[in-house]
Every structure is written in structure tokens, then in C-alpha cells.
Predict the 3D structure of the following.
Amino acid sequence: MKSLLLLSILVISCNAYAEPFKTADVLAGKALVDKNCVSCHAQSFGGDGSSIYTREYRKIKTSKGLVAQVRNCNTMIGLKWFEDEELNAASYLNKTYYKFTE
């Protein structure tokens, strides 16, 4: 029974990472980013904070990496977002700055 549950979770997780932005709500993601991310990034990087996404040596290289980084920020600052909210924020960031196709 445990292995069936683990397998189900793994399959669901893989599907979320295969096409992470397919079902995401970009407008909801923008609202989350505006409310929770912009001020911290502006404080750390100056201006409106968007230079964190456009800097020459940015950390994020893939859509999976973007989702992982949003999840990391969510955890580090204790936002308590659900997975769909993380994907919404990542989708907005992807559409606006990163332009990953998968």
C-alpha cells in the first residue's frame, strides 16, 4: 500500500514538473509576486527588484529550476503558499522574464 501511494505521488510530481506552467494562473501569480516578492528583491537588488531575474549570472536556467527557486523562497520566508500558488508565481515570472518553453 505504501509503495502504491509513493508511486502515485511520484507520478503526480513528475507531471507537475513536465509542464509546470500548463495550468497555472499568470494573473494570480503576478498578484502573489507583487505582494510578497517585489519589496524583498528591491531591497536586495535595488530599483524595482527585477534585476534579480535579468542579471547576467542568474541562477535559474530551466523551468524546473524556476519552480524550485519559488518553492525555496516560499519556504525560507514562510509564505505557506500551496503548490498551485508556487506554480502561479513561477508562471508569471517565466512569462515576464525567463521565457522557458518547457
In short: The chain is about 70% helix and 0% strand.
